[in-house]
Amino acid sequence: MRVEIAPGVRVFVDVDGPGLVPDGAGMRERPTVVFLHGGPGFDHCTGKSTLSGLSDCAQFIYYDHRGHGRSDRRPLTECALDIWADDVVRLCDALGVVNPIVFGQSFGGMVAQRYIARHPAHPGRVILSSTSAHFGLARKLAWFERLGGAAVRDAAEAFWTRPDAATLKAYYVSCMPFYNTTPQDPQIGERTTLTPEILMHWAKGEKKTMNLLPGLSRAQCPVLVLAGDQDPVTPIDDARDIAAALPEQWVQFHAVAGAGHGAWRDKQNEAFAVLRRFIAAQAQQSKSTP
Fold it and tell me: What is the per-residue DSSP string for the chain?
C-alpha cells in the first residue's frame, strides 16, 4: 500500500506481523520495528527477504524511502538525509506508531543517525546495522584490497570517486561479491526495484561530505550498534566510531565475527539472538511502564 506522509508525497509500506496478539482475556501490544532499507537507490526487499524470521517477536513495518522503489518518484532535491530522516516521523504519525524501534541498515543506518540527531525523543530504541557516519573512503579501499586484491580496490575507488553508469556496473561485478562471507540469494537483487539516479545523486554529493558523529550525542534511548567484522563497505572501525560517539548510558555494541554487510546474512543465529534480546527489552520496558 502507499501511504501519504506529506501533501502529495506517498511512500510504499508493507507490514509483517500483528501489532496486537491475543493474551489471555486481553490483547497484548508487541513492539513495532520500522525498517529503513539500504542503498540509496534500492528498496525494502533486501531487508524483508532476510529479516522475516524476526516477525514472531515484533511487528515489522517496511517501507521504501521517499523517491525509492515502489514509492512515488520525487525530485532529487528531496533526496537528502534531513528529509529522509524527517520522513521516519511523518510515516509514524501517518500510521499511528508511537515509540518505534527504528532499524537502519547500511544507508538506512545513516538516515537513522540523522533521525537521532533531529528527533532524539521520538524512538523507543534504535538499531544501527552495518552503517557508517562518514565517507571514510580509505577504510573501504583497504578492506576491498584485503578481501579481493588490487583490482577490486581499484573498482571501488573508481566508483566512489568517479560515479557514473560504467563505474557502477564494474563495482557491482567486482566489489559486491565481497560484501558478505557466505553466498547470498541472487534473486534478492533481481526482485529489487532500483532507482540508480538517486544513488548517483548521493554518491556525487551528500555522501562525500556527511559527518553524522556529532549528532549522535543527542540520543535519548538505547541504541544497538551491530556490525560484521569482515564488512568492506561499512567497516567495523566505522561501527566503533559510531559507538564511541553515542552516550555511554545508551549504547550497546556487538561485532559479529566472520560476518560481512548485514551480519544476519552470514551469521543469522548470533545476529538474530542479539536483535531478539534488544527488541524484547523494549517489550519489557513497555510492560513495566504504567
Answer: -EEEEETTEEEEEEEES-SEEEETTEEEEPPEEEEE--TTT--THHHHHHHGGGTTTSEEEEE--TTSTTSPP--GGG-SHHHHHHHHHHHHHHHT--S-EEEEETHHHHHHHHHHHH-TTS-SEEEEES--SB--HHHHHHHHHHHH-HHHHHHHHHHHHS-SHHHHHHHHHHTGGGS-SS---HHHHHT----HHHHHHHHHTHHHH-B-TGGGGG--S-EEEEEETT-SSS-HHHHHHHHHHS-TTTEEEEEETT--SSGGGT-HHHHHHHHHHHHHHHHHHHHH--
The pLDDT of residue 290:
47
HSE of 5, CA atoms in CB hemisphere, 13 A: 26
Q: Are 35 and 108 in contact (CB under 8 A)?
A: yes
What tens digit of pLDDT does each residue of 241-276 get?
Answer: 999 999 999 999 999 999 999 999 999 999 999 999
Amino acid at the residue 136:
G
Give the whole-angstrom CA distance, residue 242 versus residue 57: 27
CA distance 277 to 19: 18
For 164-189, what is each residue's pLDDT tens digit? Answer: 999 999 999 999 999 999 999 888 88
Rounded CA separation 227/241 (Å): 12
Residue 1 pLDDT exceeds 80? yes
Is residue 112 within 8 A of residue 38, CB to CB? The reply is: no
Q: Which of 241, 275, 271, 240 is nearest to 256 (CA)?
A: 271
Q: Are 226 and 198 in contact (CB under 8 A)?
A: no
Please, are residues 53 and 16 in contact by the beta-carbon 8 Å criterion? no
